[in-house]
Design brief:
Layout lengths: L2 E4 L4 E4 L6 H12 L4 E8 H4 L4 H8 L5 E9 L3 H10 L6 E6 L3 H12 L9 H15 L4 E4 L9 H12 L7 E5 L3 E2 L2 E2 L2 H18 L3 H7 L9 E4 L2 H4 L2 E2 L4 H12 L5 E5 L19 H19 L6 H28 L6 H24 L6 E2 L2 H7 L3 H14 L3
Parallel strand pairs: 2-12, 3-4, 3-6, 4-5, 7-12
Antiparallel strand pairs: 1-2, 6-10, 7-10, 8-9, 11-13
Helix pairs in contact: 1-7, 6-16, 8-9, 8-13, 11-12, 12-14, 13-14
Organism: Vreelandella andesensis
Protein name: Glycosyl transferase
GO molecular function, one term: transferase activity
Length: about 400
């Protein structure tokens, strides 16, 4: 059974009693007759060598309702791609790997760039965008899920709960976002969401005034989760950032293109643990340092499209407002952890807040200094208007990489 309520913005499904995964899968197999389902797995080659992905594949082998699995493989040379083909070969579903660094897809990428349509920098957003294009080209799925490849606590019930609201033909949801508690090994995790996004959204409301968009983002229990499901037609019309702003960018596009009644979030796991990014205080191009910069820029860009005007003074005020709110939240998180027998390092929490506060100002300066920046990858609707045969060519290139010589 599931209990749900309207939180004022989107429908929130909270599982009070977990149904056995076999029961969910039995229903999903029936749904798949009307709404064929696929799964996108954006992956770095290094994740094939980690502890999580092999266990994820072992679970996906048992999933009976998926019609296709599309793996986006980044940072892989020829030998590594051949290894990946073997690695995923045990999957019984129709499985294709996008070798994003291979010569065939690189040739298409260069042609897109020549038309001003490519992703300007590598990253998860670029990987997901190409996988979305392939799903559209294959035509095998009308409902598509996506989750990360570093989930250490993965089991297939996570995917079943994620897909259910969008796959059920009786429901009218076009998009479903997954959430879960960020607790593992007796610690509170999810620092960027807890310590940056939540207080930043509230600080933006204080500085910029009431905003339906900010209320909408604040209604998601875990806006940075990498797990979501959608109807395949959603993939055609959205523009997404190529960088760490992917999750915020996707939610922003959905708020612009769809009624809130078509959007929902669902509790998909009792526990969730994955590879934790380092803070990387000394390197603005990696870890939580880079992530926080990209997320802040994504929020500033979206608010600017809604007519919000920013100045250097505004960003200084925002930094001060955020900092006070974040410190107050650390106090609450500390009390929450104590009540639940969890550990929380307040020194490290406050160090992270200091970094995020500094990055809010840095992201503001980057936003003001580069007004011509093209932050989003174009939608596939626009790409097909400029290059009508691009999806067919991509489909052929992926088929040749997966079945022929490379």
């Amino acid at each position: 059974m599931s209990d749900f309520h309207q939180n004022g913005v989107i429908t929130d499904f909270h599982n009070l009693t977990r149904r056995p995964v076999e029961a969910l899968e039995q229903e999903l197999c029936q749904f798949a007759k009307r709404r064929p389902m696929g799964l996108i797995l954006p992956s770095l080659f290094s994740e094939l060598e980690g502890p999580a992905l092999s266990a994820i594949v072992d679970e996906l082998v048992k999933v009976p309702y998926l019609n296709e699995i599309v793996v986006g493989l980044d940072r892989a040379d020829r030998d590594q791609f051949l290894y990946a083909r073997e690695f995923f070969s045990r999957l019984p579903q129709h499985t294709r790997i996008l070798w994003n660094d291979g010569p065939r897809l690189r040739a298409i990428d260069k042609e897109l760039e020549s038309h001003g349509l490519g992703a300007l920098e590598p990253g998860k957003g670029r990987n997901v965008w190409y996988c979305a294009g392939y799903v559209l080209s294959s035509g095998r799925s009308t409902t598509v899920g996506l989750h990360d490849c570093d989930i250490l606590t993965y089991d297939r019930s996570l995917l079943a709960r994620l897909m259910y609201p969008v796959a059920n033909p009786r429901f009218n949801y076009s998009f479903c976002k997954g959430y879960y508690p960020r607790i593992a090994e007796g610690k509170l995790n999810g620092r960027v969401s807890r310590l940056m996004v939540t207080p930043l959204l509230r600080a933006l409301k204080t500085v910029c005034g009431p905003s339906p968009y900010l209320d909408y983002l604040d209604s998601f229990r875990y806006p940075l989760s990498g797990e979501f499901a959608m109807r395949s037609d959603v993939l055609e019309g959205i523009r997404i950032p190529a960088d760490w702003g992917l999750e915020i960018g996707v939610l922003s596009e959905l708020q612009r293109n769809y009624s809130h009644r078509q959007l929902c979030q669902v509790d998909i796991a009792d526990a969730y643990d994955h590879k934790h990014q380092p803070v990387s205080e000394e390197d603005a191009n990696s870890g939580l340092n880079r992530m926080s910069l990209d997320i802040a820029k994504a929020l500033y860009r979206k608010l600017a499209t809604q007519g919000v005007s920013f100045s250097s003074e505004d960003f200084r005020t925002l930094k001060a407002t955020y900092y006070r709110l974040a410190l107050d939240l650390i106090e609450a998180y500390d009390h929450d952890a104590t009540m639940n027998g969890l550990s929380l390092d307040r020194h490290c929490e406050e160090q992270a807040v200091e970094l995020f506060a500094s990055n809010l100002l840095e992201a503001g300066n980057l936003f003001l200094d580069n007004p011509r920046e093209r932050p989003f990858i174009p939608s596939w609707n626009r790409v097909q208007a400029a290059m009508p045969d691009v999806l067919a060519r991509m489909h052929e290139a992926v088929a040749l990489d997966n079945q022929g010589k490379v």
